[in-house]
Design goal:
Layout (H helix, E strand, L loop, with lengths): L3 E8 L1 H15 L15 E8 L5 H8 L2 E9 L2 E8 L1
Antiparallel strand pairs: 1-2, 3-4
Length: 85
């Protein structure tokens, strides 16, 4: 399995739609509402992820001169609480 991957992240249109509605309401509070606009396709951004293997995250922390306070695996993700040495 490849450890360096690009994962699609979809920007939800409803968030953008709500922001636009708030802007329009603040700018022109007494005008008639505009007719609904056709739905736009969602915006998709690709985000870089490095998928760690067991123990690899802790090794990187030590290499960076840090100290692992606590670490674990939860919901398909490795995590660590770290501190400076």
């Amino acid at each position: 399995m490849d450890q360096d991957v690009m994962v699609p992240w979809v920007l939800q249109n409803k968030v953008n739609k709500k922001k636009n509605q708030l802007k329009e309401a603040a700018a022109e509070p007494e005008t008639a509402p505009e007719p609904p606009k056709p739905e736009e396709p969602p915006v998709v951004w690709n985000r870089y992820y490095h998928l760690y293997k067991q123990g690899e995250l802790e090794e990187d922390v030590v290499t960076a001169k840090g100290r692992v306070v606590e670490s674990g695996y939860e919901r398909d993700n490795w995590w660590a609480i770290i501190s400076k040495e």
